[in-house]
Design goal:
alpha/beta, Rossmann fold, 4-stranded parallel sheet, 11 helices, 10 strands, binds D-glutamic acid, cell shape
Amino acid sequence: MLSESPIGVYDSGVGGLSVLRAIRDALPHERLLYVADSAHVPYGEKSQDFVERRACAIADYFVSRQARAMVVACNTATAAAIALLRRRHPGLVIIGVEPAIKPAAHLTHSGVVGVFATTGTLASPKFAALVQREAPEVRILLRPCPQWVRLVEQGELTGPDAEAAVRAPVTELRQAGADVLVLGCTHFPFLRDLIQAAAGPGVPLLETGAPVARWLRHQLQERGLLRGEGAGALLLETTGAADSLAAQASRLLGQPLSAGTVPDAWR
Ligand code: DGL
């Protein structure tokens, strides 16, 4: 059972691969099933109700595949739906991601932190509570960047258009005093080089893949669910076009990969 049952990881599209990358490093023996909900990307501008419905469909799919754990590798879906998912599947280990506000509050000298995320994440009560709890004294500048999600989905990680799309919002928050930048959407680490170039070399860019992977490892270990040996595996599936996901993921993860489709019942 343990050897065959996967850990489910999902996002609206390919952004969650930035988290999956860290999970593979921390848990090299696991069998990972990554689902890109590409038929419905982006989530960032959609209603809470819609994002909840998709989260439930994908969680139910992971359960049908006997997943031991599920990682919601999407800030937007975590903000909208993680509480609902935990009520729906109380026996499943469910890990979410949220913007790195706490470390940012520790790192800032200027007392100003910039957060790039989706509209859905930044407007959510869960994000407001996070800021209130972890950074009540810090000035937090919010910047929704739906265009960055599109760039990553289209594989446009370099070139003048991508550079311009990244430079404007980064410059704006830097000029407003932000000395730490939070990448509060899992798509954005794939634009890290452009963001760093626009922000300046010493500016911390905070993402959450590695801490989430460590937390997942800890949760599995505590429950005796960790696979400590054997070859790891990566299965990629999408609610959209399998050949597109295979091409996108191969490029983003730097290795040739194939992909399949999620059965109709969960699409
Ligand atoms: N990658 C996602 C996040 O972390 C969602 C982006 C989107 O679909 O708009 O928020």
